[in-house]
């Protein structure tokens, strides 16, 4: 009898508990931390319509010319075949491999003028040429460059040439400084070498950026006494390092812009056809030919030339006289510094298409850097 009463009371408590639960509002579902939705840049209604029409109406052969890989174009076309055309700009995120960064670049290229069908290449990637310099140059900084200094470093000498870009493209660039400095001794104590390098840096004029030829790198070897290790001249490497550091320090510490760049080895010789087999030839004839152009004459101001002359150079009379009076080996070193700077100006700063095409063609026929070494 006692057990029956206990069982009846437990049933009453359970029924009362169920009634109380029924009166409580439903609990809100627990949502774990969800990824924030992908937000595209704000597009106008006209831009959105233009993007959707370009994606839905063009095939793979047309879309691949924009800033998108061929693999993603195939995924996009397969998705459209199964699900129909895109109705919203955000529908593209439903396709595997399309993140916010990829889609933003793709949509931006769709809003630019359509690339020519005859070219068969992506116009948006035309700037991705061979890595001419190290480190890479920011596009905004490139547009702000108005002066450059080319520095040619040898074992016992340093030469430099400064070029100043004109205000308009109808005038040539101006050679403002051209100098050669002898270090003389090959075996200097480090303290004396530092002192001389600081003096050289003091002589090098100010500019927006400085360009050197990419130095030869030492190769790791399991045999420390290997003859291969002697290919790198220690003093030249020390001078390059000290000059680079001193020139880099000319920018303020809080400034992220780079001001020292290294042009790929032998690129200058390839651009100006100074390679015969695996040997460099003298640059003197090239320099003298540039000096004979009409804008290096006294009556340059009377010329009415409407072609692009920025990639050409005007030599002041005092620098032409200096060049003609120095020793022949010094003329060669001055010429190398000048052409190094001019190659940087044409290939990187001005992006002269004829110069880039010339280097691209020659790079297939001429020996590589490893072969030349």
TrEMBL record:
One of its GO terms (cellular component) is mitochondrial nucleoid. InterPro entries: TEFM. One of its GO terms (molecular function) is DNA polymerase processivity factor activity. Signal peptide: none annotated. It comes from the Eukaryota. One of its GO terms (biological process) is transcription elongation by mitochondrial RNA polymerase. This is Transcription elongation factor, mitochondrial. It comes from Drosophila mojavensis.
């Amino acid at each position: 009898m006692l057990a029956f009463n206990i069982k009846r009371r437990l049933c009453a408590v359970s029924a009362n508990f169920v009634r109380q639960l029924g009166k409580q509002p439903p609990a809100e579902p627990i949502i774990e931390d969800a990824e924030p939705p992908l937000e595209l840049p704000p597009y106008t209604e006209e831009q959105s319509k233009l993007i959707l029409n370009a994606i839905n109406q063009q095939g793979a052969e047309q879309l691949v010319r924009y800033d998108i890989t061929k693999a993603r174009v195939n995924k996009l076309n397969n998705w459209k075949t199964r699900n129909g055309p895109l109705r919203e700009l955000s529908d593209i995120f439903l396709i595997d491999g399309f993140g916010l960064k990829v889609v933003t670049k793709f949509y931006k290229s769709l809003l630019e003028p359509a690339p020519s069908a005859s070219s068969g290449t992506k116009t948006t990637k035309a700037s991705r040429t061979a890595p001419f310099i190290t480190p890479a140059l920011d596009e905004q900084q490139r547009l702000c460059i108005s002066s450059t200094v080319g520095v040619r470093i040898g074992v016992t000498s340093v030469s430099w040439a400064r070029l100043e870009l004109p205000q308009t493209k109808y005038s040539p660039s101006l050679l403002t400084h051209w100098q050669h400095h002898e270090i003389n001794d090959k075996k200097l104590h480090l303290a004396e070498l530092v002192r001389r390098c600081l003096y050289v840096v003091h002589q090098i004029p100010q500019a927006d950026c400085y360009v050197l030829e990419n130095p030869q790198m030492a190769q790791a070897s399991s045999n420390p006494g290997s003859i291969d290790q002697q290919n790198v001249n220690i003093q030249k490497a020390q001078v390059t390092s000290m000059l680079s550091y001193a020139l880099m320090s000319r920018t303020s510490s809080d400034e992220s812009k780079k001001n020292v760049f290294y042009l790929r080895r032998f690129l200058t010789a390839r651009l100006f056809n100074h390679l015969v087999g695996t040997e460099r030839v003298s640059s003197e004839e090239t320099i003298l030919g540039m000096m004979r152009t009409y804008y290096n004459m006294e009556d340059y101001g009377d010329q009415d030339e409407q072609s692009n002359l920025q990639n050409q150079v005007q030599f002041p009379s005092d620098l032409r006289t200096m060049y003609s009076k120095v020793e022949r080996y010094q003329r060669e070193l001055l010429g190398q510094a000048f052409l190094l700077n001019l190659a940087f100006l044409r290939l990187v700063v001005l992006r002269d298409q004829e110069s880039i095409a010339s280097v691209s063609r020659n790079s297939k026929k001429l020996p590589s850097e490893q072969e030349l070494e």
